[in-house]
Amino acid sequence: MTTVSARLPFEYYVLDRVVFEGGIVCRIAGKLVRERVKDSHGRSYRFVGLALRDSNGRLDVGRLKSDEWVVAPNLVYAFEAPVAEDAD
Hints:
The protein is an all-beta fold. It has one domain. It has strands spanning 14-15, 19-28, 31-38, 44-50, 68-71, 75-80. It is globular, with a radius of gyration of 14 Å.
C-alpha cells in the first residue's frame, strides 16, 4: 500500500468537524472510541488504530496509508468507499 509523504505538515492529514457514529470499539485514555466517523462532505471512515509519533513527538504521518486520516487526538480512520447498491 502506498504511504503518504512525511514532508507535508501533519495538519494536512487531520479530519476535523467529524460526526462520530456506530458502536464503541474501545476506550483510550478514558475516552470512548466509535467505529466510524463522517466528515463534513458525508464521507465515511472506519477506525483502524492509533497514530504513532516520531522522535520529536509529532504525528508520524509517513506511517499512514493513502486512505487513512487522523482524527484528534491520535485516532486513525480509513476511508470507506460507498457500497454500490444492486440493480434489480
